Amino acid sequence: MPELLLPFLGVVAILTITPGPDTLLVVRNGLSAGVRGAWLTGLGCCLGISVHATAAVLGLSAILAASATAYTVVKLAGAAYLAYLGVRLLISTIMSGEEPTPERMPQVAVRGNGAAFRQGLVTNLLNPKIALLFLTLLPQFVASDEPRLRTTAMLAAIFLGIAVLWWRTFSLAIGPISRVLRGRRSRRLLDGVAGCALIAISARVAFESNR
User: Fold this and answer.
1) What stretches pass through the bilayer (predicted)?
2) Which residues, including other chains, have CB under 8 Å from residue 66's CB and lie 6 or more apart?
3) Which of 27, 84, 166, 175: CA 20 to 30 A from 147?
4) Contact 92, 108 (CB under 8 A)
5) Rounded to two decimals, what is the model's pTM?
6) Phi, then psi, of 182 in degrees rounded to 5
């Protein structure tokens, strides 16, 4: 096991529970679609994290860190995706004035479950800060006498494991709350708030400094 495992676990725990765009998506999808919606969103986030972790272990993230242009492109793509999700939620809020028919309800649920995973995945894939996080964080917890590649890969796997555990626990905690907010009016309010928040986050991401 890595010599600096305990301090690494502490840092990762803090980073994992710190709210971000992925937290907002998990909360929104969880309150809208229950435990399954939150869990699928969290799994999508974890898959995105695993891609960045693998890139960092293989040294590919250094390309993104070294190129201001590449970093900016990924950052703006991520901001655009968040804005897209926010606008869709606002449009859904405005257009949901009509009472949905029973025949359409199952179709909406199926699409929502598939979209939940996709939203978590894309949001994390298009977040260059996650790539830089792995690139700068992991080497700090590799002792000088440890094999760098193997230890880095082990730390990345532990990071991912903690993320999976967190989102599973978080999704289960959202379940009881989602059952309370089943009304159409509550969901419209939730989508409106989430849509505005995503647009605000996208603007902050787009205009923040690259470093």
Assistant:
1) 6-27, 39-64, 70-91, 121-142, 154-177
2) none
3) 166
4) no
5) 0.84
6) -90, -10
**Spatial CB neighbours of 165, under 8 Å, sequence gap ≥ 6:** none
Amino acid at 7: P
Q: Which residue has the higher pLDDT, 97 or 141?
A: 141
Tokens matching residue 181? 């907010």
C-alpha distances (whole Å) from 167 to each of 70, 85, 164, 174 are 30, 21, 5, 10
Q: Where are the domains of the chain?
A: 5-207
Identify the residue with better confidence: 182 or 111.
182
Q: Which one-letter DSSP state was computed for residue 92? A: H
Q: How far apart are CA 108 and CA 159, in angstroms?
A: 34
Give 100-141 as a DSSP string.
PPTTTHHHHHHHHHHHHHHHHHHHHHT-HHHHHHHHHHGGGG
